[in-house]
Design goal:
- It is a single chain.
- The protein is an alpha+beta fold and 390 residues long.
- The protein has a single domain, classed as 4-Layer Sandwich (Chorismate synthase, AroC fold), CATH 3.60.150.10.
- The chain is built from 11 helices and 17 strands.
């Protein structure tokens, strides 16, 4: 079975973004409202800047879908950039008559300087437009397709914010269920704790007035996964490695965790692992989930729990020091419209990337040209191993 593939194209202020997802089976029913709801959720979160007041993202299929069902071929989704109307001269795909002023002051913490050095550009905009996190709108569109596929197989992917800056939400009593996430989007920072939500909003306000940006930590969970996704036999097939690559590919992500993550390094072995139990009703199960649902590079039947640590955004209202790449003179880095905090949005992008990795794992394990073929193969596997979703 060929691997699922997702590719995006487009620039932050260009005409629009495109996502192509190849490898989904035919016959999968798509929910247009659910897909566009994910697009809107990426734009939520306290601390967003003026760009989100301009854009109203929606994903329009331009190939691979007919009457709401997949056809088995590549699916193309288009997301228009409404802000392009303000950038048409600067970002037109074709030459323009009026010479444009180039950007020569790269931002610390961004792709700007390394990008112009790598590709031989003289204008930083040739790098920053593609490096921008605006690209994640296309990933969320593709991830929404993957979530539709997973939903058809009994899997749900959700997320929450654990920390913004120095404000950390208190630990919750485990196990969390899917129902706990039903109202997470009602929080302006997508946090499950009301008191922490208020503190996070206040922290963003304080730091924004100080011309600062904030990072934080988010968590993504997947419920309903069968054991045995991924493999121990080859390093590139280990699911934890693939998940780490997917999360760390999101702009500004600097850390990845699985289950208890770095906290496991300080625990004694007897407190670090998840003991195995069995009952006729449940089959094999665990009473803890410190491993985050992955052991030996494979899912173990418990909910998947991954986290991502996001650094503060590098575009600041009070620019950091930089050097002009043309004159080599010192100056302030480029300042463009920016957000103060995008951790809540990054969590939604994290959902999309986790959904993509999991959808790929299901496609490789169960195959099928039609969604019913995939369901039948999954059903046979569950019967063989005697597994029931908890």
């Amino acid at each position: 079975m060929a691997a699922l593939r997702m590719i995006t194209a487009g620039e932050s202020h260009g005409p629009g973004l495109t996502c192509i997802v190849e490898g989904l089976p035919a016959g999968l029913e798509l929910d247009r409202e659910a897909i566009n709801r994910d697009m809107a959720r990426r734009q939520l979160g306290y601390g967003r800047g003026g760009r989100m007041k301009i854009e109203s993202d929606a994903a329009q299929p331009t190939g691979g879908v007919r009457h709401g069902r997949t056809l088995g071929g590549p699916i193309a989704l288009s997301i228009a950039n409404r802000d392009y109307a303000n950038w048409e001269e600067r970002m037109n795909p074709w030459p323009v008559e009026t010479p444009l002023e180039e950007v020569h002051l790269p931002r610390p913490g961004h792709a700007d300087l390394a990008g112009v050095q790598k590709f031989g550009f003289s204008d930083v905009r040739d790098v920053l437009e593609r490096a921008s996190a605006r690209e994640t709108a296309a990933r969320v569109a593709g991830g929404a397709l993957c979530k539709e596929f997973l939903r058809a197989l009994g899997v749900a992917v959700v997320s929450r914010v654990l920390a913004i800056g120095t404000v950390v939400a208190p630990a919750v009593e485990e196990p969390l269920t899917l129902a706990h996430f039903a109202a997470v989007d009602d929080s302006p920072v997508r946090c499950l704790d009301d008191e922490a939500t208020r503190a996070m909003v206040e922290h963003i306000n304080t730091q924004r007035k100080a011309n600062e940006s904030l990072g934080g930590v988010f968590e993504v969970r997947a419920f309903g996964l069968v054991p045995g996704l991924g493999s121990h036999v080859s390093w590139e097939e280990r699911l934890d490695g693939r998940l780490a690559g997917a999360i760390c590919s999101i702009q500004a992500i600097k850390g990845f965790g699985l289950g208890d993550g770095f906290a496991l390094a300080a625990k004694a072995g007897s407190l670090a692992h998840d003991e195995i139990f069995h009952s006729p009703e449940r089959g094999f199960y665990r009473e803890t989930n410190r491993s985050g649902g992955v052991e030996g590079g494979m899912t173990n039947g418990e909910p998947l729990i991954v986290s991502g640590a996001m650094k503060p955004l590098p575009t600041l209202t009070k620019p950091l020091r930089s050097v002009n790449i043309e004159t080599l003179e010192a100056g302030g880095a480029l300042r463009e419209r920016t957000d103060s905090c995008t951790v809540p949005a990054a969590a939604v992008v994290g959902e999309a990337m986790v959904a993509y990795v999991l959808a790929d794992a299901y496609r490789q394990k169960f195959g099928g040209d039609h969604i019913d073929d995939a369901r039948a193969a999954l059903r046979a596997y569950r019967e063989r191993i005697g597994w029931q979703a908890s």
